[in-house]
Amino acid sequence: MQAISRNALAGPELFGINYGAALTAVLASFYIGGTSLQLFAWSSLAGAAVAGVLVLALSSAGGASKSPVRLVLAGATLNLLFASLTQGTLILNEQSLDTMRFWLAGALTGRDLALLAQIAPYLLAGLAAAFALSGQLNIFKLGEEVAQGLGQRLKLIRIGCIVAVVLLAGSAVAIAGPIGFIGLAVPHMARMLTGGDYRWVIPYSAVLGALLLLAADIGARFALPGQEIPVGVVTAFFGAPFLIYLVQRKEGVS
User: Fold this and answer.
1) Are 56 and 10 in contact (CB under 8 A)?
2) Taking the CA atoms of the chain, what radius of gyration do you get in angstroms?
3) What is the reported pLDDT for 253?
4) 190: Cβ–Cβ under 8 A, 6 or more apart, which residues?
5) What is the model's pLDDT at position 207?
6) pTM for this predicted structure
């Protein structure tokens, strides 16, 4: 997402992808009934896809170019809208609120290998797409005109990236809820270690993201004696200062 938008603030939590997936999962649970992972998976993937398309459509409305600022504004607006609709839907159904409020905060509790096996095909397909596109992203980040001059098929690259984001973010939300700030912070950590080559940034991000989530989950289990807090609360607690630092750094550079 950061490569195709050329925006350091791009991430599934700020562009509405996570809460788009969460909203459709809540709606599916509310209208269809049940909380099976397959229901969450398909509904989350659909919501992530809709959110991604809406962000791109809004950011280029009126024929304007998809500038980083427009993308952030469109994503933040949709994120707030999806979050509000999700909370409103849960308020209308108290049973759904009790069942899903812990999941909506982002949690790994009770997520065993059997559940991972069910979602693995979507995750593996998303990873394969991301790895396959990593070389093209090195050219894409130079700018659309340069990439097009070098023979890159920009539309196909964008579509492939959107498919990868939908598969990865939708699958993650389906199994663990909309955990924030991992997708935003980890690529910057990976670049500190590898530089800007996306052939290394993407695999390093996968490993560092898993390690960061594991550390946050361990912290969530021991933060309050005798009580476990959602891991999404821990990632937000550390992610918010990182976002502020990132914005200030970008302003200093500009």
Assistant:
1) no
2) 18
3) 46
4) 200, 201, 204, 205, 208
5) 93
6) 0.79
- Name the residue with tokens 């340069």: 146
Nearest-CA neighbor of 133 among 172, 165, 173, 169? 165
8 A C-beta contact, residue 106 and residue 231: yes
CB-based contact 187:201 (threshold 8 Å): yes
Count Cα neighbours of 151 within 13 Å in the Cβ-side half-sphere: 0
**What pLDDT shows up at residue 254?**
43
**Cβ-count burial of 111 within 10 angstroms (0-12 exposed, 13-18 middle, 19+ buried)?**
middle
